[in-house]
Amino acid sequence: EAGVVQSPRYKIIEKKQPVAFWCNPISGHNTLYWYLQNLGQGPELLIRYENEEAVDDSQLPKDRFSAERLKGVDSTLKIQPAELGDSAVYLCASSSSGNRNEQFFGPGTRLTVL
Amino acid sequence: QKEVEQNSGPLSVPEGAIASLNCTYSDRGSQSFFWYRQYSGKSPELIMSIYSNGDKEDGRFTAQLNKASQYVSLLIRDSQPSDSATYLCASFYGQNFVFGPGTRLSVLP
To answer: pLDDT tens digits for A43-73?
Structure first.
């Protein structure tokens, strides 16, 4: 079974530029999460999807961040414009309600904003 | 504010010893708990889940949960240098996960 797929793995951009991250969850997983992880800290939730519906986006900075999950499968997270403080690892994870909520992470995208 | 606390370490143990990692959580409504291992530069990898009070063993790993004390632990028996990583504790409540900052474990050959 394929795991969570993310791309790109690394991205370097200048501040004020836009950037987008893509995630394909494990097949059959209806719940998809986007997290941000800074060095030395645990992942912090940005947004959670149940199928195609964003059911928790309370921690998403909506002035510059947006996300979508069309057709309830893969998802895109966008930042526009990026700021220096956005440099971090962006993790996508998925889980299935039928699997006791075990959550699996993709490899992440390391973003550097110059 | 739901919080999960862990000692950031580093925790150093000699090869072959038992490593004990601890975690406390603030929300009594938390339903289940997970331990993730994260190697440097990699993403978190699920290694243990525990849902009820008591112990759960899987190979060299034992997770312990005490809901009355709001305490979760992970024991790693016969520690190996390959166990050197950061271990993240997570609680699950209301469909969301709350992660601790992680404990860095170093197993010395």
So the answer is: 999 999 999 999 999 999 999 999 999 888 9
Q: Which residues of chain B from 43 to 102 reach within 8 Å of chain A, CB to CB? A: 43-46, 49, 51, 88, 90, 92, 95-97, 99-102
Mind telling me how many Å the CA of B13 is from chain A's nearest CA?
20
Q: Give chain A's mean pLDDT.
A: 94
Closest chain A residue by Cα to residue B102? A42
By the 8 A CB rule, do B20 and B73 touch? yes
pLDDT over 90 at B109, yes or no = yes
Who has greater pLDDT, B9 or A16? A16
